[in-house]
Amino acid sequence: MKRINVGIIGLGTIGSGVIKILRERRRLILERSGVDVHLVKACDVRRAQADKIGLPSSLFTSNPQEIIKNDKIDVVVELIGGFHPAKELILQALKSGKHVVTANKALLASEICDILSVARRNKRQLKFEASVCGGIPIIKAIREGLVSNKVDSFLGIINGTSNYLLTKMAEDSLTFSEALSRAKKKGYAERNPRFDVEGIDAAHKLVILCYLLFSKLIPLDSVFKEGISDISHLDIRYAQEMGLVIKPLAIAKKVGDDLEARVHATLLPKDHMLAPVNGVFNAVLFRGDLVGDMLFYGRGAGQFPTASAVVSDLVDLGSDAQADSILKSSVKPRIRKVRRMDDIVSRYYLRFMAIDKPGILARIAGVLGKYRIGIAQVSQKERRRAKFVPVVMITHHALEKNLRNALEAIERLAIVKSKTIKIRMEDF
Ligand code: HSE
Question: For residue 22, how far is the Cα from the chain centroid?
């Protein structure tokens, strides 16, 4: 039997979940893994958090230094989130000879290299399974199950809140703001949901996954992020009529030596593996050169799914097999740079609000043709008494820069009202 002594900093939702799991499943974990995960101390500035879960006073402290400087503790679990003091506490813990487990995706997305180099210098490990897709063991899958594969691309629904919003808009014909109010009521969206709906949370996770897959920490601001708040129910309905669904995707693709890294609402054929991933669920589809396509599906958030990932890291740290598996700094990056959005190639759904007069469609198609954009499908959705009618098109593959220029040229012609709706489409 191996014993691992743990100190937890942060008794919020996940921290409390970890403690509950350790309390109730310690024996099961020991029987399955041979590792006895033993909680030595838990810290929070709010004593009430400890009381809520009935933590004995002897196990509680409000001072994180009592964990970091405690010689009995082997692993510090950082679950306070944010940059400061989380980063300082993690570095201090590593320098004090402790392994670290964290779920802090925002911090890792910019600082993982620095933190790992401190871990390496101190011969300690940094583990972060809970930082991406909560309960889905996706980091373990990349580092262990897929270790001999070159995974050159993945598509992921890695933000549960935005998936819930688009699902509800589609299922219940809600507007974005109606869906958001419902998500807030159900606790699926923060009071300030900016990180989730603008793609920032998904970009953090995408950066971490790309680091593991391509051995390069790409800057967060090189990831293209487009929020989902402009998606309207009208487009969801038109897409459905064309056999398509709209999903909030994080996309990474190695193209030559470059990487496409983007987060945006994306159209998928309704028989695509990610199409039935609804509500708050997450899923990631990896394309490995040896295994082919692999889909991981599950809960990306919530107390127990996320705490379950933290506990799995603790068990790994306690078992011999993982004793010296530190991500190496010497691995050659598999990509050179992140491609600018102008240089990506995609198919597009376009919705023009066009004047309903003979010849207008031909003028739109003419401009698209001039910019080498082929049309695969077109329909004028309905004729209303209004002056402008929706004209929907699906293009063939086109260069984003050409599409941008074409739409600007069409908008200058004054035959369409307002900005054209553009949704990228994936067929991988
Ligand atoms: N806010 C995240 C989501 C959960 O909606 O997926 C934690 O990563």
Answer: 27
The token pair that represents 62 in the structure block: 């409000």
Measured from the CB, is residue 160 less than 6 Å from ligand 1? Answer: yes
In order along the chain (428 residues), what is the average pLDDT of each group of 10 residues?
96 98 97 97 97 97 98 98 97 97 98 95 95 97 96 97 97 96 92 94 98 97 97 95 97 98 98 97 97 97 96 93 59 95 98 92 97 95 77 97 97 90 92
Range of the domain at 145: 139-299
Yes or no: say if 129 and 156 are a contact pair by the CB < 8 Å rule.
no
Which of 242, 265, 299 is the last residue before a domain boundary? Answer: 299
Distance 135 CA to ligand 1 centre (A): 11
The answer to whether residues 145 and 287 belong to one domain is: yes
Q: Is 95 part of the annotated catalytic residue set? A: no
Name the 3-class secondary structure at 191. coil
In the chain, % helix, strand, coil (3-state, to 5) comes to: 40, 25, 35
Which tokens in the block code for residue 108? 């890792």
Which CATH number goes with the domain that contains 420?
A: 3.30.70.260
The answer to whether residues 116 and 147 belong to one domain is no
Q: Are residues 234 and 146 in the same domain?
A: yes
CA 209, distance to chain mean position in Å, is 9
Task: Identify the CATH number of the domain in which residue 11 sits.
Answer: 3.40.50.720
Distance 281 CA to ligand 1 centre (A): 10
Q: Are residues 198 and 291 part of one domain?
A: yes
Pocket of ligand 1 contains residue 250 by CB under 6 Å: no
Alpha carbons 126 and 251: distance in angstroms, whole number: 26
Contact partners, residue 362, CB within 8 Å, separation at least 6:
none
301 within ligand 1 shell (Cβ under 6 A):
yes
Instruction: Confirm or reject: Cβ of 161 under 6 Å from ligand 1.
Output: yes
Query: H-helix or E-strand containing 361?
Result: helix 360-370
Residue 270: which CATH number?
3.30.360.10
372 C-alpha vs ligand 1 centroid, how far in Å?
Answer: 39
pTM across the whole model: 0.96
- Domain total of the chain: 3
Is residue 91 located within the same domain as residue 114? yes
